[in-house]
Request: fold
Amino acid sequence: MPYIKIELTREGVSREQKRELIAGVTNVITNVLNKDPKLTHVVISEIDTDNWGFDGEQVSDLREKGITADKKN
Amino acid sequence: MPYIKIELTREGVSREQKRELIAGVTNVITNVLNKDPKLTHVVISEIDTDNWGFDGEQVSDLREKGITADKKN
Amino acid sequence: MPYIKIELTREGVSREQKRELIAGVTNVITNVLNKDPKLTHVVISEIDTDNWGFDGEQVSDLREKGITADKKN
Amino acid sequence: MPYIKIELTREGVSREQKRELIAGVTNVITNVLNKDPKLTHVVISEIDTDNWGFDGEQVSDLREKGITADKKN
Amino acid sequence: MPYIKIELTREGVSREQKRELIAGVTNVITNVLNKDPKLTHVVISEIDTDNWGFDGEQVSDLREKGITADKKN
Amino acid sequence: MPYIKIELTREGVSREQKRELIAGVTNVITNVLNKDPKLTHVVISEIDTDNWGFDGEQVSDLREKGITADKKN
Reply:
């Protein structure tokens, strides 16, 4: 009976990306735990950048300084 | 000191239905546990159907296929 | 697709009370929203009284002072 | 690795107040626990007053009756 | 800055399975969203079967009736 | 009506530290928002290090490698 909540900043996540998150996370959970996907719910919660804090600062302030959360290459 | 979070898909829940959810759930909790309702908080969180996944699929995709979460009669 | 989280202090809630909470809350939710109970999950989270704060104080400190969360009669 | 969720009613909290909440809460957590603020995330979730229940009533109903959550002086 | 909470019933999930859940979910999230894994936190919450309700019933009651959440083959 | 959840790894947080977290966080929230502390609840959730993932790794694995979350001096 897994339930998964994904919280991320609201920065233009597309419907297709959400579809991939739901499919991918459900796949990991049900494979690792051998759980029925019909008992597996995933909820995505998008948070305004004003409402997320990291290192004591608002993410919207960090973004204005050019600091992103992108993967390093 | 109970706190109750209700997460559901954002599909036209009315103010009156929310009022009934709050009253009904508070009633169950305070009666079963003999708790003071003045210490009981209920939070309803409505989730876009793009953001809820079930069985590995987006609920908005399921709805477009005609699959609902309605009670069976 | 409702999901309900109930947080309460760990103060001797019995298995039978949990059963009543689950049945009662599921009943309210599925009736008010006309939702399929097979898509309705309820999670009870019991919190140690050291870990719950109210009015700026630890509930375990409040209990030691004789302050309860019981319903007033 | 602390994560802090702050839920409050959506009643005109300003960007500056959110900045103060994030800075203040991060400060308390990292000082009390001696944790690296770069591992500390704060998420603020604003809840419509129709969606928050207290004492079995919708906060929007309480507000219409003139009942606020303001600090008593 | 994603944060992921995974709630599942406490039914003998091993440390190795938790390791796989953390690695697998982080991989999906950071790939789909192109996010830095150093900003990605995953929290697993194991819930006693007495404390999880499905279809109005306690999971521990369902298990005693031989009903599992295992994947169908 | 604020509700605050603090999630942290279970690594020997004392009752006194919890008391300070509750008092300090309640103080920040009620001062910044001018809210009644009698409507302010704080819940601390301690998570086993096997159950917290950061950067795709279990915190218990990170700790065994000598990596901590302590504040840098």
In short: The first helix of chain C runs from residue 15 to 33. The CA atoms of residues 7 and 45 of chain C lie 5 Å apart. Residues 3-64 of chain C form a domain with the Macrophage Migration Inhibitory Factor fold (CATH 3.30.429.10).
